[in-house]
Amino acid sequence: MTSVTQVQDIKLQIEMAASPERVFDALTRNDVLQAWFCERADVSTAESRYDFWGRFTPEAPAHEGGRHPIVGFEPGRSIAYEWIVRGGPTRVEYRVEESGDGTRVAVAHRGLRPRAREEASLTDWWGLCLENLKAWLERGAPGPRRDHAMKPGRETKLTVEIDAPREAVFRALTDPVTLERYIAETGKAVVDARVGGRYDFGWGDEGGPVQIVAFEPDAKLAYSWRFEQEPDTVVTWTLEGSDKRTRLTLTHVGFQDDSLFDAYVTGWSKFLNRVKHLVEGGDVWERAVAAAHDF
Prior knowledge:
By secondary structure, the protein is an alpha+beta fold. The protein is 24% helix and 36% strand. It starts with 7 loop residues before the first strand and ends with a strand.
Protein backbone atom coordinates (compact mmCIF):
# COMPACT_ATOMS: atom_id res chain seq x y z
CA MET A 1 0.00 0.00 0.00
CA THR A 2 1.28 3.47 -0.88
CA SER A 3 1.06 5.95 2.00
CA VAL A 4 -0.36 9.39 1.33
CA THR A 5 1.20 12.34 3.09
CA GLN A 6 -1.46 14.55 4.59
CA VAL A 7 -1.04 18.26 3.84
CA GLN A 8 -2.96 21.37 4.74
CA ASP A 9 -3.30 24.95 3.56
CA ILE A 10 -3.27 28.27 5.39
CA LYS A 11 -5.25 31.24 4.07
CA LEU A 12 -5.35 34.75 5.57
CA GLN A 13 -6.31 38.20 4.42
CA ILE A 14 -6.15 41.72 5.78
CA GLU A 15 -7.45 45.15 4.77
CA MET A 16 -5.21 48.20 4.90
CA ALA A 17 -5.44 51.90 4.15
CA ALA A 18 -2.80 52.05 1.43
CA SER A 19 -2.79 51.92 -2.35
CA PRO A 20 -2.26 48.58 -4.14
CA GLU A 21 0.91 49.99 -5.68
CA ARG A 22 2.37 50.86 -2.28
CA VAL A 23 1.38 47.51 -0.82
CA PHE A 24 2.94 45.53 -3.65
CA ASP A 25 6.10 47.58 -3.30
CA ALA A 26 6.24 46.62 0.40
CA LEU A 27 6.01 42.94 -0.60
CA THR A 28 8.90 43.07 -3.06
CA ARG A 29 11.42 45.71 -1.88
CA ASN A 30 14.26 44.39 0.25
CA ASP A 31 14.61 47.36 2.61
CA VAL A 32 10.88 47.46 3.32
CA LEU A 33 10.63 43.68 3.78
CA GLN A 34 13.35 43.99 6.41
CA ALA A 35 11.27 46.62 8.23
CA TRP A 36 8.18 44.44 8.77
CA PHE A 37 8.81 40.83 7.66
CA CYS A 38 12.33 39.43 7.89
CA GLU A 39 15.82 40.18 9.13
CA ARG A 40 17.44 39.73 5.69
CA ALA A 41 15.92 39.85 2.19
CA ASP A 42 17.27 39.42 -1.33
CA VAL A 43 14.30 39.58 -3.66
CA SER A 44 14.68 39.92 -7.41
CA THR A 45 11.68 39.34 -9.64
CA ALA A 46 13.96 39.63 -12.69
CA GLU A 47 16.04 36.71 -11.38
CA SER A 48 12.99 34.82 -10.04
CA ARG A 49 14.05 34.66 -6.41
CA TYR A 50 12.27 35.65 -3.20
CA ASP A 51 14.95 35.01 -0.61
CA PHE A 52 14.42 35.88 3.07
CA TRP A 53 16.11 34.54 6.16
CA GLY A 54 17.40 35.38 9.63
CA ARG A 55 16.08 35.24 13.17
CA PHE A 56 12.56 36.42 12.24
CA THR A 57 12.00 33.54 9.79
CA PRO A 58 10.96 30.01 10.89
CA GLU A 59 13.67 27.42 10.16
CA ALA A 60 15.88 29.84 8.20
CA PRO A 61 18.67 31.35 10.30
CA ALA A 62 21.10 31.41 7.34
CA HIS A 63 20.75 32.43 3.69
CA GLU A 64 21.06 28.85 2.47
CA GLY A 65 17.86 27.94 4.29
CA GLY A 66 16.03 30.97 3.00
CA ARG A 67 16.22 30.54 -0.76
CA HIS A 68 12.80 30.67 -2.42
CA PRO A 69 12.38 30.48 -6.21
CA ILE A 70 9.56 32.57 -7.62
CA VAL A 71 7.08 30.34 -9.44
CA GLY A 72 4.40 32.90 -10.28
CA PHE A 73 4.44 36.63 -10.84
CA GLU A 74 1.87 39.16 -12.03
CA PRO A 75 3.29 42.69 -11.59
CA GLY A 76 1.31 44.72 -9.10
CA ARG A 77 -1.13 41.89 -8.36
CA SER A 78 0.44 38.61 -7.25
CA ILE A 79 3.65 36.80 -6.48
CA ALA A 80 4.21 33.15 -5.58
CA TYR A 81 7.29 31.31 -4.37
CA GLU A 82 8.35 27.92 -3.07
CA TRP A 83 9.37 27.43 0.58
CA ILE A 84 10.76 24.26 2.13
CA VAL A 85 9.38 24.26 5.66
CA ARG A 86 8.23 21.54 8.09
CA GLY A 87 10.29 19.02 6.18
CA GLY A 88 8.75 19.47 2.75
CA PRO A 89 8.09 21.79 -0.21
CA THR A 90 5.29 24.32 0.14
CA ARG A 91 4.02 27.22 -1.95
CA VAL A 92 3.23 30.75 -0.77
CA GLU A 93 1.19 33.20 -2.81
CA TYR A 94 0.43 36.87 -2.11
CA ARG A 95 -2.49 38.51 -3.90
CA VAL A 96 -3.12 42.25 -3.83
CA GLU A 97 -6.39 43.86 -4.90
CA GLU A 98 -8.16 47.17 -4.47
CA SER A 99 -10.81 47.15 -1.74
CA GLY A 100 -12.90 50.27 -1.22
CA ASP A 101 -10.52 53.13 -0.49
CA GLY A 102 -7.71 50.74 0.42
CA THR A 103 -6.22 47.37 -0.40
CA ARG A 104 -6.84 43.75 0.52
CA VAL A 105 -3.81 41.48 0.84
CA ALA A 106 -4.40 37.72 0.80
CA VAL A 107 -1.79 35.08 1.66
CA ALA A 108 -2.18 31.40 0.82
CA HIS A 109 0.42 28.95 2.15
CA ARG A 110 -0.25 25.56 0.56
CA GLY A 111 1.02 22.02 1.02
CA LEU A 112 2.10 22.16 4.66
CA ARG A 113 2.62 19.08 6.74
CA PRO A 114 0.16 19.24 9.67
CA ARG A 115 1.51 21.00 12.74
CA ALA A 116 2.88 18.91 15.58
CA ARG A 117 1.81 20.04 19.04
CA GLU A 118 5.26 21.38 19.92
CA GLU A 119 5.58 23.34 16.66
CA ALA A 120 4.60 26.98 16.32
CA SER A 121 1.46 27.80 14.35
CA LEU A 122 2.33 29.29 10.97
CA THR A 123 -1.14 30.84 10.95
CA ASP A 124 -0.10 32.80 14.03
CA TRP A 125 3.19 33.74 12.38
CA TRP A 126 1.54 34.90 9.16
CA GLY A 127 -1.06 36.87 11.13
CA LEU A 128 1.72 38.64 13.02
CA CYS A 129 3.51 39.45 9.76
CA LEU A 130 0.42 40.79 7.98
CA GLU A 131 -0.60 42.93 10.95
CA ASN A 132 2.92 44.38 11.06
CA LEU A 133 2.69 45.12 7.33
CA LYS A 134 -0.56 46.98 7.95
CA ALA A 135 0.99 48.97 10.82
CA TRP A 136 4.05 49.79 8.72
CA LEU A 137 2.01 51.07 5.78
CA GLU A 138 -0.61 52.95 7.79
CA ARG A 139 1.46 54.36 10.64
CA GLY A 140 5.10 53.56 9.96
CA ALA A 141 5.09 51.60 13.24
CA PRO A 142 5.35 47.78 13.01
CA GLY A 143 5.63 45.92 16.28
CA PRO A 144 8.32 43.43 17.38
CA ARG A 145 8.60 40.28 15.33
CA ARG A 146 8.85 36.67 16.48
CA ASP A 147 12.51 36.05 17.26
CA HIS A 148 13.26 32.42 16.39
CA ALA A 149 16.76 32.75 17.85
CA MET A 150 15.31 32.82 21.37
CA LYS A 151 16.63 30.00 23.54
CA PRO A 152 13.80 27.62 24.53
CA GLY A 153 12.83 27.61 28.19
CA ARG A 154 10.08 26.64 30.60
CA GLU A 155 8.49 30.09 30.54
CA THR A 156 7.52 32.73 28.00
CA LYS A 157 8.49 36.36 28.51
CA LEU A 158 7.76 39.03 25.89
CA THR A 159 7.75 42.82 25.98
CA VAL A 160 6.38 45.52 23.69
CA GLU A 161 6.46 49.32 23.82
CA ILE A 162 3.09 51.00 23.20
CA ASP A 163 2.51 54.67 22.41
CA ALA A 164 -0.47 55.02 24.74
CA PRO A 165 -1.09 55.59 28.46
CA ARG A 166 -1.29 52.61 30.81
CA GLU A 167 -5.02 53.02 31.41
CA ALA A 168 -5.72 52.56 27.69
CA VAL A 169 -3.57 49.44 27.55
CA PHE A 170 -5.14 47.99 30.72
CA ARG A 171 -8.59 48.60 29.27
CA ALA A 172 -7.60 46.50 26.24
CA LEU A 173 -6.78 43.65 28.63
CA THR A 174 -9.94 43.88 30.74
CA ASP A 175 -12.80 45.19 28.60
CA PRO A 176 -14.76 42.25 27.11
CA VAL A 177 -15.75 44.14 23.94
CA THR A 178 -12.14 45.08 23.27
CA LEU A 179 -10.90 41.55 24.01
CA GLU A 180 -13.27 40.29 21.32
CA ARG A 181 -11.56 42.52 18.77
CA TYR A 182 -8.24 40.69 19.02
CA ILE A 183 -8.35 37.44 21.03
CA ALA A 184 -11.74 36.37 22.43
CA GLU A 185 -14.72 34.82 20.64
CA THR A 186 -17.39 37.34 19.66
CA GLY A 187 -20.01 37.71 22.40
CA LYS A 188 -18.28 35.23 24.72
CA ALA A 189 -15.61 37.18 26.62
CA VAL A 190 -16.14 37.36 30.39
CA VAL A 191 -14.17 39.56 32.82
CA ASP A 192 -15.14 39.64 36.49
CA ALA A 193 -12.59 42.33 37.42
CA ARG A 194 -11.42 41.14 40.84
CA VAL A 195 -9.09 38.59 42.34
CA GLY A 196 -10.94 35.27 42.17
CA GLY A 197 -13.18 36.51 39.36
CA ARG A 198 -13.79 34.64 36.13
CA TYR A 199 -11.71 35.57 33.07
CA ASP A 200 -12.69 33.78 29.87
CA PHE A 201 -11.98 34.18 26.14
CA GLY A 202 -14.90 31.92 25.25
CA TRP A 203 -12.72 29.28 23.62
CA GLY A 204 -14.89 26.49 25.02
CA ASP A 205 -13.43 23.03 25.57
CA GLU A 206 -10.15 24.11 23.97
CA GLY A 207 -9.27 26.00 27.15
CA GLY A 208 -7.62 29.31 27.87
CA PRO A 209 -7.81 31.66 30.88
CA VAL A 210 -9.85 30.63 33.90
CA GLN A 211 -9.64 32.85 36.97
CA ILE A 212 -7.99 36.16 37.90
CA VAL A 213 -5.21 35.67 40.46
CA ALA A 214 -3.83 39.24 40.53
CA PHE A 215 -5.60 42.49 39.67
CA GLU A 216 -3.95 45.93 40.03
CA PRO A 217 -5.67 48.55 37.83
CA ASP A 218 -3.34 49.99 35.16
CA ALA A 219 -0.42 47.97 36.58
CA LYS A 220 -0.94 44.19 36.58
CA LEU A 221 -3.32 41.44 35.51
CA ALA A 222 -2.67 37.73 36.08
CA TYR A 223 -4.91 34.73 35.50
CA SER A 224 -4.72 30.96 35.66
CA TRP A 225 -4.52 29.13 32.32
CA ARG A 226 -5.77 25.67 31.40
CA PHE A 227 -5.36 24.22 27.93
CA GLU A 228 -6.23 20.71 26.75
CA GLN A 229 -3.70 18.20 28.20
CA GLU A 230 -1.20 20.78 29.42
CA PRO A 231 -0.38 21.48 33.09
CA ASP A 232 -2.17 24.40 34.76
CA THR A 233 -0.11 27.56 34.23
CA VAL A 234 -0.32 31.31 34.92
CA VAL A 235 -0.30 34.26 32.51
CA THR A 236 0.72 37.70 33.81
CA TRP A 237 0.54 41.09 32.08
CA THR A 238 2.62 43.86 33.68
CA LEU A 239 2.30 47.55 32.71
CA GLU A 240 5.03 50.10 33.32
CA GLY A 241 5.60 53.62 32.08
CA SER A 242 4.38 57.17 32.33
CA ASP A 243 2.88 59.97 30.27
CA LYS A 244 1.64 58.44 27.02
CA ARG A 245 4.01 55.45 26.70
CA THR A 246 3.61 51.98 28.20
CA ARG A 247 5.92 48.99 28.42
CA LEU A 248 3.73 45.88 28.38
CA THR A 249 5.33 42.61 29.50
CA LEU A 250 3.72 39.20 29.24
CA THR A 251 4.98 36.18 31.17
CA HIS A 252 3.55 32.66 30.99
CA VAL A 253 4.96 30.31 33.62
CA GLY A 254 4.39 26.88 35.12
CA PHE A 255 5.39 24.53 32.30
CA GLN A 256 7.13 21.26 33.14
CA ASP A 257 9.59 21.49 30.24
CA ASP A 258 10.33 23.59 27.13
CA SER A 259 8.40 21.45 24.61
CA LEU A 260 5.66 24.07 24.10
CA PHE A 261 7.98 27.08 24.06
CA ASP A 262 7.89 27.73 20.29
CA ALA A 263 4.13 27.39 20.05
CA TYR A 264 3.40 29.77 22.92
CA VAL A 265 6.04 32.36 22.03
CA THR A 266 4.66 32.63 18.50
CA GLY A 267 1.04 32.79 19.63
CA TRP A 268 1.66 35.31 22.40
CA SER A 269 3.85 37.42 20.09
CA LYS A 270 0.86 37.79 17.79
CA PHE A 271 -1.53 38.76 20.57
CA LEU A 272 0.95 41.10 22.27
CA ASN A 273 1.40 42.88 18.95
CA ARG A 274 -2.36 43.06 18.51
CA VAL A 275 -2.70 44.92 21.79
CA LYS A 276 -0.12 47.43 20.56
CA HIS A 277 -1.72 47.93 17.15
CA LEU A 278 -5.28 48.05 18.51
CA VAL A 279 -4.49 50.64 21.20
CA GLU A 280 -2.35 52.78 18.91
CA GLY A 281 -4.63 52.40 15.88
CA GLY A 282 -7.93 52.99 17.67
CA ASP A 283 -11.38 52.12 16.37
CA VAL A 284 -10.23 51.68 12.75
CA TRP A 285 -7.78 48.86 13.53
CA GLU A 286 -8.68 45.43 12.15
CA ARG A 287 -6.84 42.14 12.54
CA ALA A 288 -5.91 39.61 9.87
CA VAL A 289 -8.64 37.05 9.22
CA ALA A 290 -7.80 33.37 8.73
CA ALA A 291 -10.05 31.36 6.40
CA ALA A 292 -7.95 28.18 6.77
CA HIS A 293 -5.39 27.55 9.48
CA ASP A 294 -3.07 25.04 11.15
CA PHE A 295 -4.26 25.45 14.75
